[in-house]
Amino acid sequence: MSMYTSSSSRFTGDTYALLRIIAGLVFFITGTMKVFHYPEFPGYPMPPYNLFTQIGVAGTLEVVGGLLITLGLFTRPAAFVLSGEMAFAYFIGHAGKSFWPTVNMGIPALFLCFYFLHLAFAGAGPWSVDALLHKRKN
Question: pTM value?
């Protein structure tokens, strides 16, 4: 196997699924900080939860979407919505501070935007409810 070709290792699907699960859990926990105030947000207290605010919408999307991504359930539509949320978060919260993501502290939002966009097209992979449903259907 060359280091210049794509891997067809037997672990490729497993590590892909592991990345999806970890990213989903981290996103879910980010949402619980906004919705349930747990764990506490470092630096300053979060305002009370209100669905009709930007933080409320973001927190709700992150809790529900993070759980769906973790489980691998409705992964493609959930990831597409979350990719849009992260693009919105980047342009609203970071891009105005500087063009450079390293300066405007937007690296996590930018990375998650494109990771979720990848998931929207690639799907959940193994270790997912989507894979189980597909296997059952066939």
Answer: 0.89
Please report, in angstroms and rounded to a whole number, the separation of the first and last CA atoms in the chain: 33
Mean pLDDT lowest among 37-46, 66-75, 114-123: 37-46
User: Crossing angle for the helix pair 107-122 and 12-35, nearest 10 degrees?
Assistant: 130
DSSP E strands, the chain: none
pLDDT digits (tens, 9 = 90+) for 1-48: 566 766 677 888 899 999 999 999 999 999 999 999 999 877 778 888
Task: Select from 26, 44, 80 the least CA-distant residue to 88.
Answer: 80
- For residue 104, give every residue at least 6 positions away whose Cβ sits within 8 Å of its Cβ, in sequence order, or none: 94, 95, 96, 97, 98
What are the respective helix, strand and coil percentages of the chain, to the nearest 5?
65, 0, 35
